[in-house]
Amino acid sequence: AALAAPVEYQVPDVYMWHTLVASATAYAPATHTGNFRAWPRCAGPLCDGGVGLQTASSLGESSSPAAVEYGGITHVAVLVGDAAAARRFYTGVLGMAVDSESCEALGARGASAACVRVGEQTIQLLELPNPDPTDVDPEYSMSAPPQGYVAEGRPVHAGRDRHVAITLHDLAPLKASLEANEVPYTMSYSGRQALFTRDAYGNGWEFGPPVTYRGATRLFPPYLVPPQPAPGEAVGWGGIPHVGLLVADTPRAKAFYCDVLGMRDETDLRPVKLPFAGLFLRCGESQVHILQLPNPDPNTAVARPALGEDRRTAYSVRSLAPVKAALDSEMCRHLFGCKWAYEERATGAGEAALLCKDPDANELMFVEDASITPIAEAEGGPVTPWTRLW
């Protein structure tokens, strides 16, 4: 699909923190003023100069674009070394279904294109160069790594790593299949009914029944309650309640996802016993879990694959216009010191889409779906009865 002209400025590849002295103070946000934070500014050529701390009033009304109306997470994409082998694992071991229709819709074709289905959502298996380590570091087995810990590989427990959560009807058949195929897994460190495992390429997955996730959000869509397995199938799939993303700085992530992109903070629902910083953020009927933990992956723009060729989370939105307005806004510029980079393109099905990276170089994709009926929101959460129709 043809790309629109790229935005004039690039996101700072090292996002200003890495251009400063590598010290604890270099990563600390400046004092909170008003409704926004401003971090130390990048002095390099990829930014347009420094500005001081800003408040909502000093930024003006033009810095508060229309709210992004989210549907939820439509698909996730992960990097694999062999799409055919990965498809065999996801279908033969995990019990997911091949999703050729979504591959076509995403514009993924050929021998290296593979998609699988879990209830209402799709997992795209991207056979593309992968800069991320795939092996587990056996030393990284602690629940809470000490300050300054450097990960030499993926953590033993995928719950301390980037991951995607999926609801299913029962953990027992999945456990049996993993054990029969000698695939390692761990159970939740917090005691929840949740199982964590990986594919051969280091991608982390979390599985659990609906009860595991229902209390973690103010909106639990009906499709996350999976049906019983169909005849001949071992697992009944629901869908994706959340994705987990690794970040270096929780306040910085909150500024991007909440202040700029308008996701709703549900961190008050996050278990207080989790021994690391993080956030629970809701985007329509789905959540993003922010994990401030050691990151073994390259997390700068120059070290990641190009947009559209990296692992990503895709979100449906009623219109792309508020997303573009938010990324182009003065608020975004003043928070992060540059005009945020993004690209517009069309999916294989002709849907308008926008791709960008977050401050830790995690890729996001926004797909326009004008048929979305946004859920009416109030201060305390979604209005009931919900306005979205399933």
Structure, explained:
Residues 1-63 have low confidence and may be disordered. This protein is of the alpha+beta class. The strands form 3 sheets. Strands 2-3-4-1-13-16-15-14 form an 8-stranded mixed beta sheet. Strands 6-7-8-5-9-12-11-10 form an 8-stranded mixed beta sheet, covered by helices on one side. The protein has a two-stranded antiparallel sheet with strand order 17-18. The longest helix has 11 residues, at 83-93. A hairpin with a 2-residue loop joins strand 3 and strand 4. It is 14% helix and 23% strand.
Biggest sheet features: 8 strands, mixed
Number of helical runs?
Answer: 7
Low-confidence runs of at least 5 consecutive residues: 1-63
Instruction: Give helix and strand order, one letter per element, not per position.
Output: HEHEHEEEHEEEEHEEEEHHEEEEE
Helix content: 10-25%
Instruction: Choose one word for the global shape.
Output: globular
